[in-house]
Amino acid sequence: MATPTGSPDRIRLEPVPYHHMMLDGRWWPRSTDPSAELAALVAAVGAAHGPVARLLLSAAGWSRRPHHIPAADRTVDLAYFSDQPPSLATVICTDGNRLTLLVTPAGR
Fold this sequence. Notes:
With 108 residues, the protein is mainly β. The chain has one domain (11-103). The chain contains one helix and nine strands; from the N terminus they run E-E-E-E-H-E-E-E-E-E. The strands form two sheets. The chain has a seven-stranded mixed sheet, covered by helices on one side. The protein has a two-stranded antiparallel sheet with strand order 2-3. It holds the Pfam family DUF5994.
């Protein structure tokens, strides 16, 4: 799948094959700064699936690790795990819905 050059958010929320499973979408962050990248991801997922409560990210690959980011009228919690692959991000919505996204690192 090619990078969505026409998409300002650089995210696709449609099934993506990954190894032996299907993921909920794909995300192409432009940088390793979560404060700069995650607002657009939260907005896109929120528009399609409802408000985002929490993001679970890999501890690797980010230049900083803030624990919260502002999102519209609330705050989204961030958690970083050393055992989560850098190629995956988990989004948990306020209704409990969980999405797993394939992450293509910045610069690829």
